[in-house]
Amino acid sequence: MSRSKRTVEERIAELNKREQNMLEKASRLKAQKKELEKRYKEEQKKARTHRLCQIGGAVESVLGGPIEEADIPKLIGFLKRQEENGCYFSRAMGREPKEKKYTEATRREDF
């Protein structure tokens, strides 16, 4: 019994079909990856927003009332001075102090 051989045209057509299937699969995988990345970014954004709300609530509970927008630069200046004067904030938070990045000129601007 002899085997029927496929013609070159048939083999090319088959390869083209396989190539097209692979391209479609690659396109689907790319879309899935994009969707996962989008979902991950959304989760990170929600986690950050939640964390910021908790921090704001903690500050307001210590102050005994709402923090005003004008108070934010004062709070930032206070925290920066704590870091400059001995990394008190980092130590209180149980973190390694970062390099000092504030100069005397920056400190004077905070007042």
TrEMBL record:
Disordered: annotated span: 90-111
Coiled-coil residues: 5-46
Top-level taxonomic group: Bacteria
Coiled coil listed as a keyword: yes
Keywords: Coiled coil
Compositionally biased residues, Basic and acidic residues: 93-111
Record protein name field: Relaxasome subunit MobC
Species for this entry: Drancourtella massiliensis
